[in-house]
Amino acid sequence: MSQSVKAAAIAATIAKPHPAADDRLAALRRIVDHCKLFQGADLKRSLAQAAMSLAIYVALVGAMIAFARAGAFGAALLLAPLAGGLLVKIFTIQHDCGHGSYFKSRRANDALGFALSILTFTPYGFWRDAHNRHHAGSGDLDRRGIGAVDTLTVDEYRALPKWERIVYRAYRHPVVMILIGAPFYFFVLQRLPLADAPVFAKTYTGLRMSQIWKSVTALNLALVAVYGGLALALGAGPVALAIIPSVTIAAWVGTWLFFVQHQYENAYWARKPEWTYAEAAIYGSSHFHMPKPLRWLTGNIGLHHIHHLASGIPNYRLPECYRASRDLLALPKMTIRESFKSARLALWDEAQRRMISFSALKAAA
Question: What percent of the chain has pLDDT over 70?
Answer without folding.
Answer: 94
